[in-house]
Design goal:
The protein has 191 residues and is α+β, with helices and mostly antiparallel strands. The chain contains four helices and eleven strands.
Length: 191
């Protein structure tokens, strides 16, 4: 018997026009705080809703699985894609750097994998953020969804779009292209 859960209401974040340099100045001057839930996407500063328990659980499961890799796990930190976009994905797997990105934030060339654990923001993540990641050349993006309980893996960006998409079902193992031997049970992430 299939139990249907009510759909989560779509959340439309508030937004303001700004550049990445201005956003960084606002952070340094204290206008923006480290715990403010904002992202800069295509010149718009969006206020994001707080993460749901389901999203936090998915992020925790992914961090647990990814910790053994030879990369850095970046949690809800900005990635400066260009002057107009600095999204804050739930997780970014970054190439190892001895300074742990203390001496300068991560850019697209540093990113191995971006993960968006999407509950109420899945439409926003697919329609707004995914094209920005593709345009910046991020090699792989995962969008984790609750209904259906899957991991959507977008790969091989070309001309501002991803040319490959693979859906990992709830009973499968997902593997990032940067670490193909790493096998993550989708059920651990989606519940």
């Amino acid at each position: 018997m299939t139990i249907l859960r009510p759909a989560r209401p779509a959340v439309l974040p508030r937004r303001w026009r700004i550049t990445a340099s201005k956003a960084e100045q606002m952070l340094r001057s204290g206008i923006l705080q480290e715990d403010d839930h904002v992202e800069l996407l295509d010149g718009d500063l969006y206020e994001q809703p707080p993460a749901t328990d389901w999203e936090n659980a998915g992020v925790s499961a992914l961090i647990h699985a990814l910790m053994g890799g030879e990369a850095l796990v970046h949690i809800r930190g900005w990635i400066r894609l260009d002057e107009l976009s600095a999204p804050e994905p739930d997780i970014a797997l970054l190439a190892f750097r001895a300074d742990y990105y203390r001496d300068g934030g991560a850019g697209p060339e540093d990113v191995l994998l971006v993960v968006e654990v999407s509950d109420s923001t899945v439409k926003f993540d697919r329609e707004v953020k995914l094209p920005l990641y593709a345009r910046a050349g991020i090699p792989e993006v995962w969008i984790v969804t609750r209904e259906p309980a899957v991991i959507e893996a977008y790969r091989s960006p070309r001309d501002g779009t991803y040319t490959e998409m693979r859906t990992y079902l709830r009973d499968e193992l997902a593997s990032p292209i940067a670490f193909p031997d790493l096998k993550i049970p989708v059920i651990d992430v989606t519940g």
